[in-house]
Specification:
- Strands 1, 2, 3, 4, 5 and 6 form a 6-stranded antiparallel β-sheet that branches.
- This protein is globular.
- By secondary structure, the protein is of the alpha+beta class.
- The protein is built from 1 helix and 6 strands; from the N terminus they run βββββαβ.
- It has one domain.
- Helices cover 20% and strands 30% of the residues.
């Protein structure tokens, strides 16, 4: 399973996705759309890189935020 940023609305994921959930919430700088990175055990060492990539992609997609962003 690759790492993926999943959108959260009212602190609930927009769809169920297996794996581990990063506790750090990433938000769009323009509208506060919230995401958490979901990842497999094999991706756990890449979490800092995934956060950086996800943050850039979340802002780039404003205002058309998807439910998930494949990292």
């Amino acid at each position: 399973m690759p790492a993926e940023a999943i959108r959260y609305v009212n602190n609930v994921p927009t769809f169920l996705y297996g794996g581990n959930v990063d506790g750090m919430c990433l938000t769009c700088s323009f509208c506060d759309a919230a995401y958490h990175v979901h990842f497999s055990n094999s991706e756990s060492k890449r979490i800092p890189d995934c956060r950086t990539l996800a943050a850039a992609r979340i802002n780039a997609e404003h205002p058309h935020h998807e439910r998930s962003i494949l990292l």
